[in-house]
Write a structure and sequence with these properties.
alpha+beta; globular; binds zinc ion
């Protein structure tokens, strides 16, 4: 689980833009992200503790927890809409 900051979410969105994966809603705060070229599929989960927001993903980068992966970047847009938030952080 990685805390979402303005800096790391911008980088994650940038990485997602290059790949343009397919994002589907599984349930509130849970998204399925598929690479259309390879078919690789990962699950992204968002959570909130107080005012702090966190994201996790079951891909390799997500499991290492070093940075927000592109799957988080790909699903944050739809999450902001569904969660009714103006900003992800
Ligand atoms: Zn990921």
């Amino acid at each position: 689980m990685i805390e979402i900051t303005k800096e790391n979410i911008e980088k994650a969105i940038e990485r997602a833009r290059q790949e343009k994966p397919l994002v589907k809603v599984i349930e509130f705060r849970r998204y399925s992200v598929t690479n259309k070229a390879t078919g690789a599929n990962y699950t992204v989960k968002f959570s909130k503790i107080g005012n702090r927001k966190f994201a996790e993903c079951d891909c390799k980068a997500g499991q290492q927890g070093k940075y927000l992966c592109k799957h988080v970047g790909a699903s944050i847009g739809i999450h902001i809409v569904i969660a009714g938030q103006i900003s992800p952080v």
